Request: fold
Amino acid sequence: MAETLLWVLPLVPTVTALAMLTTRKRRVLSALDVGGSAILTALTFVLAREVAAGGPRALGVFRVDDLGLVFLLLLVVLTLAVSIYTVGWLKQAVEVGNMEAKSLRSYFALVHAFVATMVVTVLADNLGVLWIAMEGTTITSAVLIGYHGHRHGLEAAWKYIIVTTIGISFGLFGTVLVYAAAADVMGGAGTMSWSAIMQVAPTLDPGIVRIGFIFVMIGYGTKAGLAPMHLWLPDAHSQAPTPVSALLSGVLIKCALLAIIRFQTIAAAACGPAFAEEVLLVFGLISVVVATPFILAQRDIKRLLGYHSVEHVGIVALGLGFGGAVGIYGALLHVVNHGITKALAFFAAGTAIARYGSRDMRAIRGLLAVAPIGATMLMLAALSLAGVPPFSIFVSELMVLRAGIGRGYWVAIAIFLVMVVIIFAGLLHHAGAMVFGEPRGASHKAEDWSPLAGMVLLAAFMILLGLTIPVSFDGILRRATEIVVG
Amino acid sequence: MSAETVQAIIDDLGALLLFTMILIVAASQISRAIYAVAAQSFLIAIAGGVLATATGNVDLWVIAGVTLVVKATLLPWVLHWVVRRMNVRREVEPVIPVTATLALAVAVVVMSFHLSASLGTVRQSITGNALPVGIALTLTGVLVMATRKTALTQMVGLFASENGIFFTAMAVTQGMPLIIEIGVILDVILAALVMTIMVLRVRSTVDADIADLDRLRG
Reply:
């Protein structure tokens, strides 16, 4: 059963994408979109139960363990929320002429193709397949980023495809080096399977694995948006259609983090955990520091959220770098928390942008008066992103911090804390100015149910994870942590 | 063929590959860069053939054939077609002077050899100097992508970069699994296709070249 699901899961979005090519009607397309995502979500929850009961499953190049499951659950929940949000977002976008009614089916089909490639990256056991799927995400999402077809969108899409393809080349080279190390140990034809390499990992040549890991770190780090390879990220996140921004920030950069974690476990076994941790620590600190001034000075709300993703990917890298059970658990929880919260923030920002017809935060004023529910969602997302208790991000940031204190990385913790405090102030200042005050130039149309339903779904997850972590999910996170810590 | 002969041939091919890379970096006209990267892919295909004969691995023949058809013929042809179609008058447009890029490229090559010399045992599982040459090609390809403004030159850099990876991957004991290599080549083709469409789309919708798109800052 579970084995069958492994190849059914990537097929669901693929079939949905193909089915979408047969129709041009917006309503039918939206129904297919929500339906396909709902099936994907339901099947993933079935798979999660099977794995919780019977441990990791493998089939050919695919394998699911608890580590992959954390990312898969995030992926499907966000996909479902994005589908629900898209119904209303698209109606509005077609009305104002942001999207052409004629070309909708290619948009929907591309979104589901994008989801399919991400499902494969999460389920891939073979490191080569992981790379191929990762490059697949670049190709599909690059078209989506430039989908609006205006000058800025095309510029962002070109920058994205060039920068991430360069990055991914490094990732492939790193994969080849790790494969060479494995082939050397195994003799004859080596294997590219992660689970098989892990079994011989302690005997791999540390020198080559070290170089391989650095290549992988730069490669998949580019895709994850770690500074200083993050140059594509603010452009792509700000220019893409809002549902795509949510997927990019919420899931795609997390998939790249999963790839890094897979190689981190190999590197930790081959040359001791200290090396990989130090590399992650350096990239994490650079990301947190580099993002801060851009967040403070930002005027474009979606760019702000983009730079904010750089900061949070940095925090995840710090958690992985501090290491230990607490650090890894915190990092994985942060992946989920940030994914959900950031998607919510993009949704709320998208509806605000539609209402004011501008992405400039100075133009968005008094949202609470014209759209009370949307404004509440924006404020909740901002509070959570800033790390206010009792929201979920506070919990995972605290764990990361705790791990750092436990290991005595005082300098890193000091830098981390200063940056988080600065960003806290900057973010709440921006959000407060948008939500409160006198509304000017806003449309007073009533709020539509569909974008709100998508937002409420995510807000519910966000608040739930802040108050308590469900036992079953805690179990998945614990077992995932064990996989990484070893 | 004895192991020494294979190693000698791979090393000679590696030297030629580095030479084509220098041609790409130094090219002042886009069409010359395209010819250079086509020649480079041709050399990769020969290397694949040599390694296939030496190891008796049929997969490597397939990879050599695909490289010959796709990377040495098809992709350069597409690039030339775009050059003609767009009536490109602007050439490579370096961000920093070509001589400076050349100096950097030399530094990259020296560093790659230095780096892989520090590796002991694993060098035995990679034939000859394929590892340092592969690293050098990959990094220099990235250098080309980073220091050129025009879209087509950036694509040439990308192909050169992939060539470096392929060269190393082929020389690993038995080569990578066939299915993976095919998948990688398929991705490269798709990426090239999407990039080509984007180049044409930028020209047709906003009447500009990719090199003119520089408004997103901060």
